[in-house]
Amino acid sequence: MRSKLEKCLNAVDGILLGKEVQVRLALTCLLARGHLLIEDLPGMGKTTLCHALARVLGLSFQRIQFTSDLLPGDVLGTSVFDKDSGQFVFHPGPIFAELVLADEINRATPKAQSALLEAMEEGQVTIEGATRPLPEPFFVIATQNPVTQGGTFALPESQLDRFLMRLSLGYPGRAAEKALLLGEARRDLLPRLEADPHPAGAGCAAG
C-alpha cells in the first residue's frame, strides 16, 4: 500500500515540479473520499494536477469549464427525443465521471454552481424526476480564481463546506521554474504516466 502511494506521488511530482506538499495534500484529500478546492491564479498548474491524478489513479475524467452562461443541464445532462424509438433518451453530462474537474467554478452563476455542489453532497443527481447515482468513487476538484478578479461569483460558506480541503499551488520556485523553461511542456508528459491497475486508488482508499 505504502509503496503504491509513493509511486503515485513520485509520478505526479515528476509532472508538477516543486509542488510536493500540495500534491501530497491533494492525494490525501482524494483518498479520504473528500472533494478539493484549489484557489489560485490562472497558469499555476491546477488543470495539469487534475489530469495527472486522474491518470495515475486510473480514474475516468471529465473537465467542466464554468462560465457565466453555463446551465445546470450542461453539467448534469439532458434527455433528447429519439425518433426511432419514440422515447426520450438520457444523455449524461460530464458530472458522470469518477474525477471531475470543475474549472473556474466561481465564474458560473449560483444556479449552475448548485448543480455541481448538490451532486457532491448527495452522490447522486435528480434529473427530470429520475434519480441517477454517480460513479463510485466520485471526486470533484474545483478551481476558482481569487475573488478580487472581475466576473466571479463568490461561493457561500455553506457551499465551501462541501470541500474537505482548500489549497493554493502558488508560483514555482527558482529551480522548478528553470526546469520548466528548459524542459518539455508538462501536458506533453501526461501520456507517459502509468495508470494505477486498481481504479480510483480503490484499494488505497479502502485501506
TrEMBL record:
<keyword id="KW-0378">Hydrolase</keyword>
<protein>
    <submittedName>
        <fullName>ATP-dependent Clp protease ATP-binding subunit clpX</fullName>
    </submittedName>
</protein>
<dbReference type="InterPro" id="IPR011703">
    <property type="entry name" value="ATPase_AAA-3"/>
</dbReference>
<comment type="similarity">
    <text>Belongs to the MoxR family.</text>
</comment>
<dbReference type="InterPro" id="IPR027417">
    <property type="entry name" value="P-loop_NTPase"/>
</dbReference>
<dbReference type="GO" id="GO:0008233">
    <property type="term" value="F:peptidase activity"/>
</dbReference>
<dbReference type="Pfam" id="PF07726">
    <property type="entry name" value="AAA_3"/>
</dbReference>
<dbReference type="GO" id="GO:0005524">
    <property type="term" value="F:ATP binding"/>
</dbReference>
<dbReference type="GO" id="GO:0006508">
    <property type="term" value="P:proteolysis"/>
</dbReference>
<keyword id="KW-0547">Nucleotide-binding</keyword>
<feature type="domain" description="ATPase AAA-3">
    <location>
        <begin position="35"/>
        <end position="165"/>
    </location>
</feature>
<keyword id="KW-0067">ATP-binding</keyword>
<keyword id="KW-0645">Protease</keyword>
<dbReference type="GO" id="GO:0016887">
    <property type="term" value="F:ATP hydrolysis activity"/>
</dbReference>
<dbReference type="InterPro" id="IPR050764">
    <property type="entry name" value="CbbQ/NirQ/NorQ/GpvN"/>
</dbReference>
